[in-house]
Design goal:
The complex is a heterodimer of chains A (about 120) and B (about 110).
Chain A lengths: L3 E4 L2 E4 L5 E7 L5 E7 L6 E7 L2 E4 L7 E4 L5 E6 L8 E8 L10 E2 L3 E5 L1
Parallel strand pairs in A: 2-11
Antiparallel strand pairs in A: 1-3, 3-8, 4-5, 4-9, 5-6, 7-8, 9-10, 9-11
Chain B lengths: L2 E5 L2 E5 L4 E8 L5 E7 L6 E6 L5 E4 L2 E5 L3 E6 L8 E8 L5 E3 L3 E6 L1
Parallel strand pairs in B: 2-11
Antiparallel strand pairs in B: 1-3, 3-8, 4-5, 4-9, 6-7, 7-8, 9-10, 9-11
Classes of the chains: A mainly beta (about 120), B mainly beta (about 110).
Chain lengths: ~120, ~110
């Protein structure tokens, strides 16, 4: 089945140790998104790529970076994780920026713990 | 400022007890309103997209409606497997997607 796959499902990293989360998609969607979701909070958009065009949200900390080497893969790099970066990180895709007609397709998420 | 507010934050119902979840929004130039279901520890699962006031969509026990200021997700005769967090998201004219915090729904058998 076509889908969005995130690896790993759970990631434990040390305070200040760089970590990379990955996302792959078999939907051939043009747009890929990274969201951060903390407990009982709304998902917060960090970045999105429309094809190779990178779009950074104004309030995304510099500590977070992203790479999209090809249509299928997208990575989230956290250069120096702090305790406040512990969260669920969600990858999503859509055919175009309108999200139509089927909305966004989300992966299962990566739960990041910082110790 | 564009904003999405969902209410209630949490809702407990008996199996078979119908109810509605609310999503109120203030955005510039609504392009679409989305409903998602999120199970614990998982990513959101798409349910519906609504584009214009008066539009309705149905799927099994769920029915979503849209007005110019809010959307309702009606749940008819819910079952325990309907327990989840229901997220509402709106897309504004600049294509940005804004999520609400969700309503945690718990259906008691």
């Amino acid at each position: 089945d076509a889908m969005v796959i995130q690896n790993p499902r759970y990631q434990v990293t040390q305070f200040g140790k760089p970590v990379t989360l990955s996302c792959s998609q078999t939907l051939n969607h043009n747009v890929m998104y990274w969201y951060q979701q903390k407990s009982s909070q709304a998902p917060k958009l960090l970045f999105h790529y429309y094809d190779k065009d990178f779009n950074n949200e104004a309030d995304t900390p510099d500590n977070f970076q992203s790479r999209r080497p090809n249509t299928s893969f997208c990575f989230l790099d956290i250069r120096s994780p702090g305790l406040g970066d512990a969260a669920m990180y969600l990858c999503a895709t859509s055919r175009d920026s309108s999200g139509a007609p089927g909305g966004y397709t989300f992966g299962s998420g990566t739960r990041l713990t910082v110790v | 400022e564009d904003q999405v507010t969902q209410s209630p934050e949490a809702l407990r119902l008996q199996e078979g007890e119908s109810s509605s979840l609310n999503c109120s929004y203030t955005v510039s130039g609504l392009r679409g309103l989305f409903w998602y279901r999120q199970d614990p520890g998982k990513g959101p699962e798409f349910l519906f997209t609504l584009y214009s006031a008066g539009e309705e969509k149905e799927k099994e026990r769920l029915k979503a409606t849209l007005t110019k200021k809010e959307s309702f997700l009606h749940i008819t005769a819910p079952k325990p497997e309907d327990s989840a967090t229901y997220l509402c998201a709106v897309q504004a004219g600049d294509d940005k997607i804004i999520f609400g915090k969700g309503t945690r729904l718990h259906i008691l058998p």
